[in-house]
Each structure stands twice: as structure tokens, then as C-alpha cells.
């Protein structure tokens, strides 16, 4: 009796699971920094002109 259904029941379950996983990933991306402590990386870049070679 369920042979002609084409697997639409399992397709619905897979769709719900995919949506649930997407929601979890988005929540981790949005709130992950607040939950696990935001790590700020500061890079100090000193850019200067090279010094002239010493003349002998």
C-alpha cells in the first residue's frame, strides 16, 4: 500500500532536519561570540621606509 507513495514521507523528514540544522548553525554564528567569549585579535603593523645602507 505504501509502495506508490514515492518516499514523500521521508522527504518531509529530511527537509525538517535540514531546516533545523540551518537554524542551529545560524544561531551559533550569530550568538557564538557572545556565548563563548569574543576573541578580539589586534594586529599592530608598523610600516616605515627602509633605512639607507651605511656608507663606508
Uncertain runs are: none
Radius of gyration: 28 Å
Please outline the major beta sheet: none
Order of H and E elements: H
Instruction: Report the structural category.
Output: mainly alpha
Beta-strand residue fraction = under 5%
Average pLDDT works out at: 76
Instruction: Give the helix tally.
Output: 1
Alpha carbon gap, first and last residue: 98 Å
Count every beta strand, where a strand is a DSSP E run of 2 or more residues.
Answer: 0
Q: Which percent range fits the helix content?
A: 40-55%
How would you sum up the global shape?
A: rod-shaped
How would you characterize the overall build of this protein?
With 56 residues, the protein is mainly α. Helices cover 50% and strands 0% of the residues. It contains 1 helix and no strands. It has one helix at residues 8-35. The longest helix has 28 residues, at 8-35. It is rod-shaped and about 85 Å long.
At a glance:
With 56 residues, the protein is an all-alpha fold. Helix content is 50%, strand content 0%.
How is this fold's topology laid out?
Elements: H1 8-35
Amino acid at each position: 500500500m505504501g509502495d506508490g507513495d514515492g518516499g514523500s514521507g521521508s522527504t518531509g523528514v529530511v527537509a525538517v532536519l535540514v531546516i533545523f540544522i540551518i537554524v542551529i548553525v545560524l544561531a551559533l554564528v550569530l550568538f557564538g561570540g557572545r556565548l563563548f567569549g569574543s576573541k578580539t585579535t589586534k594586529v599592530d603593523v608598523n610600516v616605515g621606509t627602509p633605512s639607507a645602507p651605511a656608507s663606508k
